[in-house]
């Protein structure tokens, strides 16, 4: 066997195998590899986009939370202010009611005292008249008058 002929046949077989592989085997393999690379790149891009969306969503959530805290703080401050105002109004109303009650009680006490004084004056006048009648019925005697006045004082107590 001739070494040159073997070498030429091997070169021809190699070239035929290379042509067959280049035309029929490599295109589907490169196509599959390209599709897979594209899917991987798309997946990575989607992951990056999702990561960016997540960061943006977290920022929006933080902003909304800050706004909600601010609104809550404003509402709490307003409620505290309103509560203090209502408390002050209630205190002033209570003071007004107490003042009116004191005035009413003083008027009632004054009227009751005046009635008691009037009743006492009437009783004193009646007793004075009764005492005068007793004095006039008896004979005029200084000791007897002193005794009658003493009895009258005891009756007044």
> What are the low-pLDDT stretches, counting only 5+ consecutive residues below 50?
none
| Total number of distinct structural domains | 1
- How many strands, which pairing sense, and closed or not: the largest β-sheet? none
From the helix content, strand content and strand pairing, which structural class follows?
A: mainly alpha
Radius of gyration: 61 Å
Helix content: over 70%
Distance between the termini: 169 Å
Main location: membrane
Protein name: ATP synthase subunit b
Family: Belongs to the ATPase B chain family.
GO cellular component, one term: proton-transporting ATP synthase complex
Structure write-up:
- The protein has 157 residues and is mainly alpha-helical.
- The chain has one domain (3-156).
- The chain is built from two helices and no strands.
- It has helices spanning 3-137, 142-156.
- The longest helix is centred in the middle third of the chain and has 135 residues, at 3-137.
Which features does this protein show?
proton-transporting ATP synthase activity, rotational mechanism; transmembrane helix; 157 residues; ion transport; mainly alpha; membrane; ATP_synthase_B_chain
């Amino acid at each position: 066997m001739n070494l040159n002929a073997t070498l030429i046949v091997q070169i021809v077989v190699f070239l035929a195998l290379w042509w067959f592989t280049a035309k029929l085997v490599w295109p589907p393999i490169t196509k599959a590899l390209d599709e897979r690379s594209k899917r991987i790149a798309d997946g990575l891009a989607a992951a990056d986009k999702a990561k960016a969306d997540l960061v943006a969503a977290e920022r929006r959530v933080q902003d909304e939370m800050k706004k909600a805290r601010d609104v809550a703080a404003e509402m709490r401050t307003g409620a505290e202010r309103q509560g203090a105002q209502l408390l002050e109004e209630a205190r002033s109303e209570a003071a007004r009611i107490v003042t009116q009650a004191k005035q009413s009680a003083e008027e009632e006490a004054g009227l009751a005292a005046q009635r008691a004084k009037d009743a006492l004056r009437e009783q004193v006048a009646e007793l004075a008249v009764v005492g005068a009648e007793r004095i006039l019925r008896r004979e005029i005697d200084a000791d007897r008058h002193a005794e009658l006045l003493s009895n009258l004082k005891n009756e007044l107590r």
